[in-house]
Amino acid sequence: MPRSDFATSAQYHADAAIRAADLLNSQIARIDSALSFMAQRKAVYLPATYKALRDNLIGVRNNALRYLGKPDNGGDLACGMMGPNGYGPKIDALIESVDRMANRARYVPPALRSVAA
Domain ranges in the chain? Predict the structure, then answer.
């Protein structure tokens, strides 16, 4: 149904700006939390894994910051790109990888298990 009422259209865009700001701020907070968790447990990660996860998280965080700097916080575009149809699943997967890699047990070959214990 086409929107003929300007007030309805203006209200829709104002709501999109609020929704975008909420989404972007929550995504940035989740990413900052994951980065802080990684920094605290840096010794648990393999160096290449740590660098890859950190670089990906920072890249997605920079995308969110870029949308926050736009007028109306990016509006519908930011909701689409950072939401469930855009980077949202990537952010979820990265944060899950941060948890999984930090909580995994390091492999110790059987021959060295008595020495490592």
Answer: 11-101
Residues 70 and 75: their CA atoms lie apart, in Å, by: 9
Q: How far apart are CA 13 and CA 16, in angstroms?
A: 5
Concatenating the DSSP letter of every residue in the chain gives -----HHHHHHHHHHHHHHHHHHHHHHHHHHHHHHHHHHHTGGGS-HHHHHHHHHHHHHHHHHHHHHHTSGGGGHHHHHHHHSTTTTHHHHHHHHHHHHHHHHSPPP--GGGHHHH-
Compute the distance between CA of residue 31 and CA of residue 50 in angstroms, rounded to an integer.
14
Q: What sign results for the dihedral spanned by CA atoms 39, 45, 48, 49? A: negative
pTM for this entry? 0.77
Q: How confident is the model at residue 1 (pLDDT cuts 50, 70, 90)?
A: very low
- Least Cα distance to 100 among 56, 48, 37, 47 occurs for 37
Q: How many Cβ atoms are within 10 Å of 34's Cβ, its own excluded? A: 22
